[in-house]
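The instructor's notes for this session suggest beginning with a concrete chain rather than abstract definitions. Hand out the sequence below and ask the class to guess, before any prediction is shown, which regions might be ordered.
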Amino acid sequence: MESALINPVGLVLWINLLDLLKTDFNRKSPSAIESMGVFLAPQTQRLKILIIDDELDMRIFLCNLLGTCGYAPIDAGDRKEGLQKARKEKPALIILDVMMPKEGGIQMYRELKQDMNLKEVPVIMLSTIDRKTFLKYQRFHRTHKDWDVPDPGAYLEKPLEAQELINTVRMLTKNAECTEFLDD
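After discussion, reveal the predicted structure:
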């Protein structure tokens, strides 16, 4: 069984779902996404986008979507791995899930915005929590002296609309410099 995803410039991404189902995501590797092989658009320079989400299915979806649209996706499954990759890879944008186990995405967002090397990196927050509830939570925490972080670049609700995400990524990275160069 195969399915196709067509990006804005007409590239077609074929994913053999049977091969995907056979992939062993539990083996120890730097990234489950790397072990299954993400299909990337043929570009010589791409912006790095870090995706931090505890849901493997969401990371696979976002990596494939961003890869076919010309970005260089990097994934992390938790806060600790996400902070390590953010510091090492210096992405042009971070897509961060709000609801993650242990210390969640909101705490991680706060750490990103207090880190001198990462505070200027735009962040898209993703969650099943509606935007209105999230903004109330943000306003509540601003009343505390130790919460002086800006609002995220964008807040998108799950389930995501692919085109809305791509439009938001383009808007937030329009002035970013390419961070990955590929050999032709």
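Then share the key points. Residues 1-30, 35-43 have pLDDT under 50 and may be disordered. The CA atoms of residues 156 and 175 lie 21 Å apart.
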